[in-house]
Amino acid sequence: MHHLRTVHRYCCGPGLPALKAPERFNGKQNLSIHQSPSSSMSLEKNSSFTLPKFDLECGITLPSVNVSYKTWGTLNAERNNVMVICHPFTGCADVGKWWSSLMGCGKAFDPRRMFIFCANALGSPFGTTSPLSINPSTGRPYGPDFPPTTIRDDVRLHKLVLDHIGITSIAVLIGGSMGGMAVLEWQLCFPGFIRRAIAMATCAKQSAWCIAWGEVKRQIIFTDAAFKGGYYSPDCPPTQGLATARMAGLLTYRSSESYEERFGRRTQEICRSISYQDENDACPKAGRAVDSQAVEYPLYAAQSYLRYKGSTFAANFDTNCYLHIMRKMDTHDITRGRVVDFLDEDTALAAVLGSMPARPLIISINSDVLCPPKEQKQLADGIPEAELVTISSVAGHDGFLVESERINTAVLKYLQHEFPEFY
């Protein structure tokens, strides 16, 4: 088992220990860019970037690291109209799949104005090196042997991609939840590289509450007999465990009020009842005789919703990747390795927040139980000249995704104020 080390050479910020310059590669070395032949710089473009090796914060060197990313829009002559979007936990580089309401002409993410970049994190099942990737030393997928990575690792890796593209600065960073964690780390690792930042529904460090929920989801997965310690067959993955873990997660992503508003005590009209034998079925199978002694219960809409969401997620996400990214988030702590050990937690956090670039936008959802508003207030109180916007919504943590109109308005207003040359 690998243990994360506090490595000061990866931690930087004004007045803090200096960041070791990342190893750079030029076109003469083993780099590769793969792009769709039909794409152009002014349109959407899927790309990948491969490094021969990458040093992780845990001390392990990962060989042959691929980064899958996507871009929209065109770089201006100064190459400074760059917007970097950091995806949330189970998101991906294709921002249009999970934040489409903010993407488009006249919206916050406008490819006519900005060159937009989003890359998949390490451990993601969508192209970047992960437990699904082939381990060169064994010729088999890494699976549970994939080394631990951190948010800082993702930031340093994605910076190398931007270096290769020729990006000289980032105009604005944007991210929510895990993406917000990355936004904070970007500002600390490369403060002179970033002009402005927008962090939503996020925190300075992963809370005990979030770590505990992560453990619940891990233990749910471990109880699936198909999991086999992570060495499961691709033909027989632990879909039941992953689906149930996702269901547990969905309870934290929304508020109790949102479930009450959306479902109440409504039952399914097509399939009115379900017997205790059918608890793994969304609906009793047609034509099957029902035991006359079975006690029938209604199938509530809330149940049906969770089952559907769990099963569809499990069909499209890898379990080892899910576990890996959860553990990555547990390591999140912007003070780690950046302050002397004798400082108490509050003093250490105040020192780090006070060293961050000024004038970010912090967005909070008032019903968020996963990253509650007090955590965004802590960021706004500590970062110089930070602006805090609180969205009133019953949507809970997922409000940063589903309250699209109000999020778009807040982000667009900030961008218009900070970047009149673009907006």
TrEMBL record:
Record's keyword terms, sorted: Transferase
GO MF annotations, alphabetized: homoserine O-acetyltransferase activity
Secreted is among the record's keywords: no
Active site (record annotation): 177, 368, 397
Domain AB hydrolase-1: 81-402
Pfam family, one: Abhydrolase_1
GO biological process, one term: homoserine metabolic process
Family the UniProt entry places it in: Belongs to the AB hydrolase superfamily. MetX family.
Protein name from the UniProt record: Homoserine O-acetyltransferase
Taxonomic lineage: Eukaryota, Fungi, Dikarya, Basidiomycota, Agaricomycotina
